[in-house]
User: Fold this.
Amino acid sequence: MKIRLYNTLGRELQVFEPLEAGTARMYACGPTVYNYAHIGNLRTYVFEDLLRRTFIYFGYKVEHVMNVTDVGHLTDDGDEGEDKMIKSAREQGKSVWDIANFFADAFFQDLAKLKVEMPEVVCKATDHIADMIDLIRRLEERGYTYLAGGNLYFDVGKFQRYGELALLDRAKLQAGARVEVDENKRNPQDFVLWFTKSKFDQQAMLWDSPWGRGYPGWHIECSAMSMRYLGDQFDIHLGGVDHIPVHHTNEIAQSEAATGKPWVRYWVHGEFLVMTGGKMSKSAGGFITLESLEEMGYHPLDYRYFCLGGHYRTQLQFTEDSLNAARAARRNLLDRVDRVRTEAARNGASLGETAADELGDAAQAHLRAFEAAVAEDLNIPKALAELWQSLKDDSVTAQERLELARRMDRILAIGITATAEGISEADAPHDDAAEIEQLIAERNEARSARNFGRADEIRSYLKEKGVVLEDGPEGTRWKRG
Ligand code: AMP
Ligand code: ZN
Assistant:
């Protein structure tokens, strides 16, 4: 099945043709971990998970990389403002490292609850400073940088295709109306690759570099880490639409300037979740988290179901009414799957998996329609409607309906699979194995860096969750205690 995606680069639907047949290599900008993720951020990660699951469904090997921005970055998208991590640490009386670890853990818990699968690689900015320095060096060798006021800048004037992704007009950019004036910049859109002159007090995260002790700019993180794991060229770059004009525009400039080659083939952007009264932003305070929805009595998958109701390229308006409607619809759906299961059992049908070629024509047609919707630029609302229709179709046997629902849930992931196995949601195992593995990897890293405080913290955190770690010669094993 051909998958078509809307490429922001070129603004058109294109058939996805990977660089290597059968493999989809994709990079997603991860969270900045100075606070909890809000449900707007989580909408973007649900969208990225739907794309990931779609590739897997259609038999692709997926290499999905996501970063964690644990170096503080600024309150603005420009180079101005206050460092968010420091601000958060000051407000909470913790170290910036504590803040970053705490919120990264909280983020991965949210993802697990939303059945967002873990990418193959999750990489932290603070573990890749050397890669960033290498990349900046390449840019320096090729003449794209200049030092001014103690900071190293990228000179956008040297990169002819600057702004192509965002359809920026170079002539207008020169006027620089929208960007705060930085006397050191040659062009208003120039951005810092390496800071040595911190504008902030008590800068806690500092590294040595050829340009002096300091810290990297935000944009270079993503270029360095994506290329480290996916190579100089890869298939897809993901993120929210807010990143098009600055962050992704700058990522392209510095990556292509460093390699001299085209970088990413498909840029796929998710639209925003909006609240009445405007967009939801982490820096604005007063935002909704997944935990707050749970406290209000929603299941995390109610929120996932809500997200599936809007195409990823349209804004989704968040209201309590629409979340209530999503919850009611999901309950109804699970009840229906439960009844189909009972009916299949009553008919003496096998409740195990049915091979696709054993499905009758009507069932096959539903599956094809579902697949066509998903493959056409991830039309999940249409795919969800197809699931409902197949469950209501009397010309399809109960056993087949159960099988269809199960197959569709491989992409939708809204709790059908457990129900189809006869497991009630309350008893369904918490799907947190990936999160546990991730924490164990982090603990191992902490131990080799002799950061035993952090290692112990992870052990006790897992213990509280009922997970016991056993360290042995073959590494760390875990079991539920
Ligand atoms: P941040 O942690 O701010 O870098 O954001 C993490 C991800 O969430 C990025 O891909 C953003 O584009 C995305 N994002 C931020 N706000 C929203 C929103 N209101 N709706 C959807 N996605 C968002
Ligand atoms: Zn990024």
Q: What stands out?
A: The mean pLDDT is 90. The first helix runs from residue 39 to 57. The two ends are 44 Å apart (CA to CA). The chain has three domains: 4-279, 305-430, 433-480.
